[in-house]
UniProtKB/TrEMBL annotation:
GO annotation, cellular component aspect: nuclear membrane; nuclear pore transmembrane ring; spindle pole body
Keywords: Membrane, mRNA transport, Nuclear pore complex, Nucleus, Protein transport, Translocation, Transmembrane, Transmembrane helix, Transport
Gene Ontology BP annotations: mRNA transport; nuclear pore organization; protein transport; spindle pole body localization
Record-annotated membrane-spanning stretches: 27-46, 58-79, 99-118, 144-163
Alphabetized Pfam families for the sequence: Ndc1_Nup
Gene Ontology MF, one: spindle pole body-nuclear membrane anchor activity
Topological category with respect to the lipid bilayer: Multi-pass membrane protein
Name the record gives this protein: Nucleoporin protein Ndc1-Nup
Family to which this protein belongs: Belongs to the NDC1 family.
Organism lineage: Eukaryota, Fungi, Dikarya, Ascomycota, Pezizomycotina
Key word Metal-binding present: no
Amino acid sequence: MATIQKWPARRYKDVLTPVLHTRFTSASLQILACCYALALVTARLDSRWAVFQITRTLLIYISAICIMIVRVAGLHTGARTSNRQLQAYWQMFTSRDTFWTFVFYTLSSFIYGSVYTWTNSDSGLEWIDEGKPYEPRRLNERKILVLALFSMFPIYQACVHIISDTPHVKFPMVIAGPSDKEKKAAVKSVWKQLTDSFPVMVQNALLNAGCATLCGTIIYYSILRSFAWGWTFSFMEVVYSLRKSQAATPPLDFPLVMDIFPRFLWNAFLLGLLWEVTNNIFSSRMAEEPLKNDQPITEYANDPNGILLLGLKSKKEPAYTAFWELAIITLRFDARRKTVYTEDNRKGGSTWSQILALCLAEINAVSGRIDNVLNPPKPSKPVPTPTDQIKTLPRLSTKPLADGDVFAPAPEIGFGDLANKKMKQLGSFPGAATPLKAPTQKLLTYAESKFSDRQKAQMSSMGVEGGFKKVSSDFLQRRQWKQWKWSPSAIFSETFANRAAVIACGTPFSRANIVVYAATALAELIARSTTEDEYGVVQKDVAPIVRAITKAIKSVDDLLLKNLQPHWTDVDFKEDDRSKVEEVNEMRIGLKAALRKILGAYEAFLGGSVVGLNPNEVKAARAAASEGRAMIEK
């Protein structure tokens, strides 16, 4: 068996970082080309220098780089999961990255707005309106309005960035099966993805620009106008020696609004499109396979498998890439896959044993999370400690001893004390007469007769909590919300899909990709071991792998189909929604494909004692592996 050569320890992050730097550089160059195209669109066509827009291109490129900095700071590969959207929004808006998101979006908008105002000197956007020769100089409100709109637009776009979870880079699922080469050939280039999604980006940019321009104009004239005018005038008064008689806010100039609105709408659309293209290119580059020169990124390290194991043990973002690389190695690279079977002289165990432990930990975590939620451990009762009790003589009376004047006259009994005493007497004796008068009692009896036995049972069992739930549920499912195609339940309700994703995939970020990568890697290593494992190190571990994947699939199926009940706030829940949990269904399909791969490879050995599975376990595994796509295609 192979012996591992001792080399200085390196982290998986040290191998991954240069690859990410290369992708960042490639994305930057592609964005620079887009910035040049945008500079040509915004340039004046009557100028002989229209093609040579170097300065404008570089300034727009700096504006785009601000967005790339935001993406790098908030990069995460697992989908964000939470029981309700309001909880996720609170976590996102209170994080440290949110502050920098607003800062860099504002900086990007400021740079682009400065380019627009500086390069359009004849558009009437100077600070001072010189007017006619015989008129005094005045403060130009056009400049104030444009800067106010360029200040509010990035705030709106930053909120969209956070709410839509733009920092999420979605990795593709790698599922075990014979069609991996076809999937590899079907991977689109960055430019192909950009051209395919360009209509959607144009639509989003136009929608965001329209909403931001309309809302910004309303906010400016209703709230910010007097403050912005007064603050700007107090500063420009000193610089340009303006008259104090002009300090008052001028009346509303409707032609000014009609002039600025379409011009800013066009520039906001171009800026929003630049942001959309930047985010799309960055996500496409960062979601590329972990390969370098068509080889795994750890291939050129001194100890490739050792560095990969460190990545698999990582608790943060590098773990997603490491498990993805492991799955790709087991699928495509035969020479590298064979080293997993032969490397045994490694600290902490052989390469196979460590990969097995790490992959099984992720697969078992699925059933573990489900069991912890559906069958929580009962809290242990505290063991009472014996204490020495002092025995005293029994008391003949339970009333406290009087310490006042025993010969004083008794105090008068008030109406409240008398009523309280009477009610206690009525409640203490079963046959006591009702304290209500006859007409009142008849009215209550008549009202009770109008309710059916079922309604009485519902009202008696509802209580205060049930009443609150009913009122809230009625509010969330009003017809008006459906007519407006919006409902507050989308934010406040705990939908079935959200709860299932939190339980099965983990929180605050889903680990569904890691689970599928781990199952795929184990399935491929087991399937290829029949011809490549010369020492038989894999055979003894087939049974626990099959049991773990079978248990995970059964736990997910039981969770979706019967164990998880809809929350009372999920007023739009339908039984068909049980089969529409996308994140969980993708993980379920990957697990089933891996199990089918294992059972197909060891089909000839399942009946005997070679694998270590009894007939019931084999039957359960085959049942779990069947109908891999039934639920998601339903």
